[in-house]
Design goal:
The complex is a heterodimer of chains A (173) and B (105). Chain A is mostly helical and 173 residues long. Chain A has 2 domains: 1-101 and 123-128, NADH-ubiquinone/plastoquinone oxidoreductase chain 6, subunit NuoJ (Four Helix Bundle (Hemerythrin (Met), subunit A), Up-down Bundle); 130-173. Chain A is built from 6 helices and no strands. Chain A has helices spanning 2-27, 31-51, 55-80, 92-114, 133-141, 146-167. In chain A, helix 1 runs antiparallel to helix 2 (31-51) and helix 2 (31-51) runs antiparallel to helix 3. Chain B is mainly alpha-helical and 105 residues long. Chain B has a single domain, classed as Helix Hairpins (Orthogonal Bundle), CATH 1.10.287.3510. Chain B is built from 3 helices and no strands. In chain B, helix 1 (3-23) runs antiparallel to helix 2. The radius of gyration of chain B is 18 Å and the shape is elongated. Chain B starts with a helix and ends in a 13-residue tail after the last helix. The chains are: A mainly alpha (173), B mainly alpha (105). At the A-B interface, helix 1, helix 2, helix 3, helix 4 and helix 5 of A face helix 1, helix 2 and helix 3 of B.
């Protein structure tokens, strides 16, 4: 029981960190601060993956999101923002409208979550999974996800070439 | 932990992402909102695959693989998004989405 309550405590800690830093991402005025808050959010989601016993996915989340996408975002900030653009301008009316829409969406989602009997009382207490890396490798490379894996690699190649083509300097003759 | 814990966290992340996309005036902030939305989707996939499969097959991890493909898509999307932002910045000198209105009739 002692161990269980510690686990619950850590889970709520991760949930709080994730939600608080996500809130910071959307409310902080300085875009660099927002990027670092996003990093904390991504770490928090990785922690939640650990609680879902998705060990490989948690590591992937840290490597790809924090190591890759966040660095890309910071480069984007560096290359496009002068001193004035660092601050984020928001109009009041837009803030109210956007806040209303997203709050309504949140209420809708919470109502659906609370009122779906099929999802109630599903718990994973006392259930531990085996490490997932080996099974993920088998599923992707020799089982039913081989074709999506190949399609994803083609997609990455396309995105790579497309990004290089779009962002290069245009040569006018 | 129950499934609903994760669903509530994911719903909050999703609404915050939608809020960022709707209200921000900077294309990179919008990208951050999209990343929040994609993360909430991945969290939902993993949580559902974990909990719903318990009575059937506790070792089923298909949802985690979908989440991995989600991460791949997010990486490709971020790269193309930032390339477009760089091109727009060179052309217009600004990345505020409401100032880039050449196509407006």
């Amino acid at each position: 029981m002692e161990e269980l309550s510690l686990k619950t405590f850590i889970f709520y800690g991760f949930a709080l960190i994730t939600i608080a830093s996500a809130f910071a991402v959307v409310s902080v005025r300085n875009i660099v601060h927002a990027a670092f808050a996003l990093m904390v959010t991504l770490f928090g989601v990785a922690g939640l993956y650990v609680f879902l016993q998705a060990d490989f996915l948690a590591a992937t989340q840290v490597i790809v999101y924090v190591g890759g996408i966040l660095v890309l975002i910071l480069f984007g900030v560096m290359m496009t923002s002068g001193r004035l653009e660092m601050r984020i301008h928001i109009q009041r009316g837009q803030l109210l409208l956007g806040g209303g829409i997203s709050l309504a969406l949140l209420m809708l989602l919470l109502t659906v979550i609370a009122n779906t009997p099929k999802w109630e009382n599903l718990t994973d207490d006392g259930l531990t999974l085996k490490p997932t890396t080996e099974r993920i490798g088998k599923l992707i490379l020799e089982d039913k996800f081989l074709l999506p894996f190949e399609v994803a690699s083609v997609l990455l190649l396309v995105a790579l070439i497309g990004a290089a083509l779009i962002s290069r300097k245009e040569i006018r003759d | 932990m129950t499934l609903q814990h994760y669903l509530v966290i994911s719903a909050i992340l999703f609404s915050l992402g939608i809020f960022a996309v709707l209200t921000r005036k900077n294309a990179i902030s919008i990208l951050m909102g999209i990343e929040l939305i994609l993360n909430s989707c991945n969290l939902n996939f993993v949580a559902f695959s974990r909990f719903v499969s318990i009575p059937v097959d506790p070792e089923n991890i298909d949802g985690q693989i979908i989440a991995i493909f989600g991460i791949v898509l997010a990486a490709a999307e971020a790269a193309v998004f930032l390339a477009i932002i760089l091109a727009i910045y060179r052309e217009f000198g600004s990345i505020r989405p409401d100032e880039v209105d050449t196509l407006k009739g």
